[in-house]
Design brief:
Strand order of the largest sheet of chain A: 1-3-2
Number of helices of chain A: 4
Shape of chain B: elongated
Largest interface: A-B, 17 and 18 residues
Number of strands of chain A: 3
Order of helices and strands of chain B: HHHHHHHHEEHHHHHH
Largest sheet of chain B: 2 strands, antiparallel
CATH class of chain A: Mainly Alpha
Shape of chain A: globular
Number of helices of chain B: 14
Helix content of chain A: 55-70%
Strand content of chain A: 5-15%
Strand order of the largest sheet of chain B: 1-2
Number of domains of chain A: 1
Strand content of chain B: under 5%
CATH superfamily of chain A: Winged helix-like DNA-binding domain superfamily/Winged helix DNA-binding domain
CATH topology of chain A: Arc Repressor Mutant, subunit A
Number of strands of chain B: 2
Order of helices and strands of chain A: HEHHEEH
Radius of gyration of chain B: 33 Å
Structural class of chain B: mainly alpha
Distance between the termini of chain B: 76 Å
Oligomer: heterodimer
Structural class of chain A: alpha+beta
Chain lengths: 115, 345
């Protein structure tokens, strides 16, 4: 039961990860800072998913990356580019609409929920 | 090398060369970010555990699939198997029987030689063919899976996306009406066997006696010259039989037309068979006298045997033709039930 629930939860969250990552990349972030800022909002992301995802977003020309070598250890920073920003805004809208729809749907389903 | 280097190497060795350096650098900086100031090996282990299996991480960086044949092609792959495997096995078997009979040495009884070869060679050949089909088909589909990046929907039978019109191509076959593929395969192998036996009858059919080297055929029953003289009829019968098998196989199910074609070609076979078996001097004189000596209670043993054989043949074709019509008249399920309940229009 718990493993099933777990896999369903992972599946449910998977689609939202891109949106979550895009939302944090409005300002430049490097890999681990991104993990921390996502975790602060309660979103845990598998690191083996995150780094490949960042690279994929770069390949899809939604983010750009640059190496910062000024500090003690070199870090690769990612930030949304123009197209990425546009896609992010649209996905955000999509998400808001979806969550509203689902909210209504689930509210109607649950008689215990106070109106 | 320390654990971090080893981990990074484990990831990057799975990646294309041009992206290795960049990913290695980023990975190292990330791992160091995750570690406290003065870290111990224990800390490193903890961090690496968080990053997970290097193979999984490396796969995340790559676009190619981590499976051989995915859901897009799996169905098609299985379908082609069901198609190609019986054909390949049939060809192998036919080739095996013809080859073995041709290669049979003079001093051995053919049927025993073929049986021996079937056990020692035939099974191996069939298995080999099956492995070949499996290997090549899997290879082809694995390549297609990696080359084709268009869409992710499962493919229909013709490498096209499914459309509702495809449903019209489906024939609903009740089991009672279907022509099993194995029947076609069996028929063809049978045809090859009896034709080969026919043209080698003097080596195969006869009175067998226990010799020094196993069973030896000492007295052939039939005159090979008489048999050979009828070659045209035999070829005709063989073509008729193979043609009928292919026709049945393509028809996939019994219809009235097929039942008629079947019945008529069976009758023709019987006629051809009767002409051959009643040709004069078919039995060798040695065999005739052998029969007369051993079956003293029958007046004309030869005629008697010929009649029995024809009768058996007749009964078997009658049964076959009857079965054909019975299957053809088996009711096809229609969609009348929908019409009655008013679901359809």
């Amino acid at each position: 039961m718990s493993t099933l629930l777990n896999s369903l939860r992972v599946e449910l969250r998977r689609g939202t990860l891109t949106l979550a990552v895009l939302s944090q990349l409005r300002s430049p972030q490097y890999g681990y800072s991104l993990v921390l800022s996502l975790e602060k909002s309660g979103i845990t992301i598998d690191q083996s998913t995150l780094y490949p995802l960042l690279r994929r977003l770069e390949k899809q020309e939604l983010v750009t990356s640059s190496w910062d070598t000024s500090e003690s250890r070199p870090r690769k920073y990612y930030v949304l580019c123009e197209m990425g920003l546009e896609v992010f805004q649209q996905l955000k809208k999509e998400w808001q609409q979806l969550s509203e729809e689902l909210y209504l749907l689930l509210k109607g389903d649950d008689p215990d929920e106070p109106n | 090398m320390n654990l971090i280097d080893l981990y990074i190497q484990e990831v990057t060795r799975r990646l294309p060369i041009k992206s290795r350096q960049d990913i290695a650098l980023e990975l190292r900086s990330t791992i160091e970010d995750m570690l406290p100031e003065d870290y111990t090996e224990e800390d490193v282990t903890l961090v690496l555990k968080k990053l997970g299996n290097p193979a999984v991480l490396a796969n995340g960086y790559m676009d190619r699939p981590m499976y051989l044949i995915g859901p897009k092609y799996y169905e098609l792959y299985i379908q082609w198997f069901k198609w190609i495997l019986p054909i390949a096995v049939t060809i192998t078997l036919v080739g095996f029987f013809v080859g073995t009979i041709m290669a049979a040495p003079e001093n051995q009884t053919l049927i025993i030689f073929v049986a021996k070869q079937a056990i020692s060679e035939g099974i191996v050949q069939v298995l080999f063919t099956m492995f070949q089909v499996f290997f090549w088909l899997t290879l082809v589909f694995a390549v297609i899976e990696r080359v084709d990046h268009k869409g992710h929907k499962p493919q229909g039978s013709c490498f096209k996306e499914w459309a509702p019109e495809d449903l019209k191509k489906i024939t609903v076959l009740p089991k009672e009406r279907a022509v099993p593929t194995m029947e076609t395969v069996g028929r063809m192998i049978w045809t090859v066997i009896w034709v080969t036996v026919y043209f080698n009858a003097d080596n195969i059919l006869g009175i067998y006696k226990q010799g020094t080297e196993g069973m030896m055929s000492v007295t052939p029953s039939l005159n090979q010259d008489v048999l050979n003289a009828n070659w045209l009829l035999v070829i005709l019968a063989a073509i008729l039989e193979i043609g009928l098998s292919i026709y049945k196989w393509k028809a996939k199910q019994w219809t009235i037309k097929l039942a008629w074609v079947n019945a008529i070609s069976q009758i023709i076979s019987l006629l051809l068979f009767t002409i051959i078996i009643t040709s004069p001097n078919l039995f060798t004189s040695e065999y005739s006298s052998f029969l007369t000596n051993n079956l003293t209670f029958i007046h004309h043993p030869e005629t008697f045997i010929i009649r029995i054989i024809i009768a058996v043949f007749l009964i078997s074709i009658a049964a076959d033709a009857y079965q054909g019509f019975k299957k053809a008249y088996f009711p096809v399920p229609t969609d009348n039930s929908h019409k009655k309940s008013g679901v359809g229009k």
